Automatic annotation (TrEMBL):
GO terms for biological process: base-excision repair. Keywords: 4Fe-4S, DNA damage, DNA repair, Hydrolase, Iron, Iron-sulfur, Metal-binding. PANTHER family: TYPE-5 URACIL-DNA GLYCOSYLASE. GO terms for molecular function: 4 iron, 4 sulfur cluster binding; DNA-deoxyinosine glycosylase activity; metal ion binding; uracil DNA N-glycosylase activity. Residues 1-19 have a biased composition (Pro residues). SUPFAM superfamilies: Uracil-DNA glycosylase-like. Pfam families: UDG. InterPro entries: UDG_Type-4/5, UdgB-like, Uracil-DNA_glycosylase-like, Uracil-DNA_glycosylase-like_sf. This is Type-5 uracil-DNA glycosylase. The lineage of its organism: Bacteria, Bacillati, Actinomycetota, Actinomycetes, Micrococcales. Residues 1-25 are annotated as: Disordered.
Length: 258
């Protein structure tokens, strides 16, 4: 069972579940509070709440989170994983990024294999999962219809990703898919990072380093962990492991690496 949540609405308490690391960072705690109470995009608000009311048959007895989903993981992560948006019956149900669906199963199993997670599964927000040195987030924090946010919805959500980058200060970003790649580059440019024009194109295995003053951030492209990629073999466990191991090596070599 997921952590019970009160009916979604503008007065819902800002209490994202299952992320004890956020409590260790006042800035992240404030960001999480702003994320989970956001109602800026009417289409997304209507959809996430509709899904929470109607529910999938296999989850009919569970209370859906049905609100925006904060990032999850190490508050001082050197590695940031950037996806697309919460899944309607995954994070939109459980309230934790990449939790409760097959995409998360694939991602967290890989993190566990390379030593970034304490367990290989991510079932619900209170299952004991802890991440070390890595944090998962997304450019869009609400589950979108057909898993396709509009450009305006992405722009409305961009300040949340920008604040998270500034607070966490990662040195590596593992970017899952072309949507996250484009969104992250746009956000970094808005934050004053030196992003080339035209922007580097997404590809699995792509590696791009950007800078802002003395700070550097390396983007690593990876096919998204969606079932359409993992079930067809387009993205294999070995391929994802290789990207995460490369991210670990880059993070360790960066100034102040930990």
């Amino acid at each position: 069972m997921t952590t019970p949540a009160p009916p979604p609405g503008p007065t819902t308490p800002a209490a994202p579940p299952g992320d004890p690391d956020a409590a260790r960072s006042p800035g992240l705690a404030l960001l999480d509070a702003d994320v989970v109470t956001c109602r800026a995009c009417p289409r997304l608000v209507a959809w996430r709440e509709q899904v929470g009311r109607e529910r999938r048959a296999s989850f009919r007895d569970q209370e859906y989170w049905a609100r925006p989903v904060p990032g999850f993981g190490d508050a001082r992560a050197r590695i940031l994983v950037v996806g697309l948006a919460p899944a309607a019956h995954g994070a939109n149900r459980t309230g934790r990024m990449f939790t409760g669906d097959r995409s998360g199963d694939f991602l967290f199993a890989a993190m566990h294999r390379v030593g970034l997670a304490n367990q290989p599964t991510s079932v619900h927000a209170d299952d004991g999962l802890r991440l070390t040195g890595i944090r998962a987030t997304a450019p869009v924090r609400c589950a979108p219809p057909a898993n396709k946010p509009t450009p305006d919805e992405r722009r409305a959500c961009a300040p949340f990703l920008a604040r998270e980058i500034e607070l966490v200060d990662p040195t590596v970003a593992v970017v899952l898919g072309a949507f996250g790649w484009a969104a992250l580059l746009e956000t970094l440019r808005d934050l004053g990072w030196d992003v080339p024009r035209p922007a580097p194109r997404f590809a699995h295995g792509a590696e791009v380093r950007v800078a802002r003053g003395e700070r550097t951030l390396t983007l690593l492209g990876c096919f998204h962990v969606s079932p359409q990629n993992t079930f067809t073999g387009r993205l294999t466990p070995a391929m994802l492991d290789a990207v995460l191991l490369r991210a670990q090596a880059l993070a360790a070599d960066a100034p102040g690496g930990r």
